[in-house]
């Protein structure tokens, strides 16, 4: 089974134990650009998951004892090949998930290579100093935990997948990866890259399929040692119940309804431009500050400037270098977004920008949308839309801004725009979020801890935190005497 996507040949079978494996059942990958089917893939389920976990457990016996230096060399080889194939990976993922081709070329795919390089290098410097307790030497070590099950979403599938795959492999775990059913194709290309890099059979496995089948079977499998998932809260609940039966440790990065707080003393142009950036990737970004909280004395000026700039956003085919945002990922997701907007309209809340499908483009293109002063507790203000839909409210005092920012069940990220450094530090400390940006957005470093509070997730990954998760951290105590010379 093969598909040609934008001139790139892709094997659409699973990758298990270093071999391509087919299934009797199939599913289609449909491009959001024009809703055309672009590939037919093997659809895995319990049997394929069981086979992949078995292969990963077999490979773990050797991989866990492979030296850190050798594991790092494998990861660097993978990074080298990714860098040589950035264009192929970029055009395939753009066709598959509808994100901007220019972003894939310049940022996303180079970041995939960086994921492997960073964790390879971090592994070699991973250390915890010994410490003394009444003359006894205490030594902390990082032991690979076993098979890591990784399930990631469709909005940046290869980058988000390798952000977990790379540290798991570096830690000495083997991996079973279930790519997103709405954008699965670059995972198959990664399997080819791992083979070209010489990664031993069974160390990295890919099982394609639907979440309710392959994903559910992976989460419930008794042979996995770690479960990392990025996606929605309802799916996370199902995974947690399944993994909980086997007491498998979890790392969840879930949704957000993040505040974007604008104080009147901010750099106005910077604030407006950064707020416009919350429409990035057609609003399909978990970190986006979708609740704009603007100080009341700046409100009218901000709204006017925001709308003027938003109307200049160019929407269209993401392969066009001049386009700013592309389509939504799928017809069901498009209809979900429109459902939020139409229910808000029915409740008496009228958007001042957008508010429906882009009728000029048709298909899955949804207009950038802004609601002013949505009703307190309303669905559009409370729940994650995951589309180009923002809400704007105003506040009078700093304490009111903080209270509004924290009036959510989520706690993934926040943005604070202010010219007062002391205020920035106070508000940052008071806001309940795993990540707070001050006068910036989307500045990320792989050394930092990443994760959310509340319904935005469980745990942290990044830097040493990733190794804390994928490893069994061991403390060994050595007495000062009793040793034979």
UniProtKB/TrEMBL annotation:
Residues 24-475 form the Aldehyde dehydrogenase domain. It comes from Dongia mobilis. CDD domains: ALDH_F8_HMSADH (cd07093). Keywords: Oxidoreductase. It holds the Pfam family Aldedh. This is 5-carboxymethyl-2-hydroxymuconic-semialdehyde dehydrogenase. InterPro entries: Ald_DH/histidinol_DH, Ald_DH_C, Ald_DH_CS_CYS, Ald_DH_CS_GLU, Ald_DH_N, Aldehyde_DH_dom. Belongs to the aldehyde dehydrogenase family. One of its GO terms (molecular function) is oxidoreductase activity, acting on the aldehyde or oxo group of donors, NAD or NADP as acceptor. The keyword NADP does not apply. SUPFAM superfamilies: ALDH-like. The active site is at 253.
């Amino acid at each position: 089974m093969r598909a040609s996507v934008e001139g790139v040949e892709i094997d659409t079978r699973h990758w298990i134990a270093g071999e391509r494996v087919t299934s009797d059942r199939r599913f289609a990958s449909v491009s959001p650009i024009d809703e055309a089917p672009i590939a037919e893939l093997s659809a895995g389920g319990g049997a394929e998951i069981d086979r992949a976990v078995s292969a990963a457990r077999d490979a773990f016996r050797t991989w866990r004892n492979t030296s850190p230096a050798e594991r790092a060399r494998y990861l660097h080889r993978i990074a080298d090949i990714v860098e040589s194939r950035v264009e192929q990976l970029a055009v395939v993922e753009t066709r598959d998930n509808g994100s901007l081709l220019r972003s894939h070329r310049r940022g996303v795919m180079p970041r995939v290579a960086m994921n492997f390089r960073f964790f390879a290098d971090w592994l070699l410097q991973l250390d915890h100093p010994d410490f003394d307790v009444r003359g006894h030497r205490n030594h902390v070590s990082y032991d690979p935990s076993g098979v890591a099950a990784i399930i990631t979403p469709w909005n940046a599938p290869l980058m988000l997948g390798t952000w977990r795959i790379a540290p798991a492999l570096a830690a000495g775990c083997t991996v079973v990866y279930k790519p997103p059913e709405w954008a699965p194709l670059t995972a198959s290309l990664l399997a080819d890259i791992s083979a070209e890099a010489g990664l031993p059979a069974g160390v990295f496995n890919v099982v394609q399929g639907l979440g309710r089948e392959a994903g559910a079977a992976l989460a419930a499998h008794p042979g996995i040692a770690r479960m990392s998932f990025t996606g929605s809260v309802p799916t996370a609940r199902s995974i947690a119940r399944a993994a909980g039966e086997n007491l498998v440790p979890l790392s969840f990065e879930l949704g957000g309804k993040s505040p974007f707080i604008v104080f009147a003393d901010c750099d106005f142009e910077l604030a407006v431009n950064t707020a416009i950036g919350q429409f990035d990737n057609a609003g399909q970004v978990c970190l986006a500050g979708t609740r704009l909280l603007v100080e009341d004395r700046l409100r009218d000026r901000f709204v006017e400037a925001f709308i003027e700039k938003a109307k200049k956003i160019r929407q269209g085919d993401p392969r066009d270098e001049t386009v700013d945002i592309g389509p939504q990922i799928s017809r069901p997701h498009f209809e979900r977004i429109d459902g939020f907007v139409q229910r808000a309209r029915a409740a008496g809340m009228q958007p001042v920008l957008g508010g429906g499908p882009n009728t000029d483009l048709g298909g899955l293109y949804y207009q950038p949308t802004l609601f002013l002063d949505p009703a307190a507790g309303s669905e559009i203000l409370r729940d994650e839309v995951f589309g180009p839909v923002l809400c704007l409210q105003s506040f009078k005092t700093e304490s009111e801004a903080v209270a509004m920012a924290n009036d959510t069940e989520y706690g993934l990220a926040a943005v604070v725009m202010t010219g007062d450094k002391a205020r920035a530090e106070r508000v940052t400390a008071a806001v309940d979020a795993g990540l707070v940006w001050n006068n910036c957005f989307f500045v990320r470093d792989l050394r930092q801890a990443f994760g959310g509070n509340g319904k935005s997730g469980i745990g942290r990954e990044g830097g040493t935190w990733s190794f804390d998760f994928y490893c069994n951290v061991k403390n060994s105590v050595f007495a000062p005497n009793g040793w034979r010379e």
